[in-house]
Amino acid sequence: MSSQLKDRPFLKDPSLKEKVCARVSRGGNSPILYLPKKFFSPGDKIDYILAVDHGQIELILTKNLYNFAIDAVRDLAHTLRFSIEYDRTIAGVHVFDAARNDTSLSYTEPVDSLEPARIAVSRHFGKVNSKREYSQILTIVDRLKHEGFDVYLEPEGDLDSINVFNDPKRYDLKDQSEAIEALRRSGKELELSAVVRFSNDKNNVKEIDSVLKELRVA
Predict the structure, then answer these.
(1) What domain count does the chain have?
(2) Statement to judge: residues 46 and 111 lie in one domain
(3) By residue range, what is the domain housing residue 121?
(4) Which has the higher per-residue pLDDT, 53 or 207?
(5) What is the rounded distance in angstroms from the CA atom of residue 4 to the CA atom of residue 21?
(6) pTM value surpassing 0.70
(7) pLDDT greater than 90 at residue 205
(8) Which terminus of the chain has a smaller tally of CB atoms within 10 A, N or C?
(9) Domain shared by 58 and 108, yes or no
């Protein structure tokens, strides 16, 4: 085996290794080798090494399954001056949490499987006491949705306040704006967080950076 192949550390201790006997097919006048659909799709960019050694041919294909890993998220947190509150692996899951003022960044990745990492960015808005305050928060959420992000509002407070906000019509209220006003009049408090969800197989660090900056100045 060539020195290039021996230098590949994942060949010695891969997290997943499958040995398959395949047959080269014919496509027109060209040989075709079909690749596993769960790892490869038409149009994917791959690197490969072809080595001929002692009468054998070895072909190593390399493709990044994910757009980024935990190191890129750590670097982003440092760049934006977030305080890292948690960064360790427990029970096969790596958990990373960082925060700055009312904005937080979390990263969760199972280290012993091929599941993508899940990333969440959130901004806590504190007490919401009026239709106007709720409308301002809703504008931010709608803008992020329009940009294609997976975003939702998460109510926080006592159970009664959360129930009124989540299902206003049950309490003879027109919508969530009226629910906010009704809670204020009754002396109840409600807090809201805007949460944006990402995964490292569908998103990139630049998108996370953009949302973090957008939420922090909101």
Answers:
(1) 2
(2) no
(3) 70-216
(4) 207
(5) 23
(6) yes
(7) yes
(8) N
(9) no
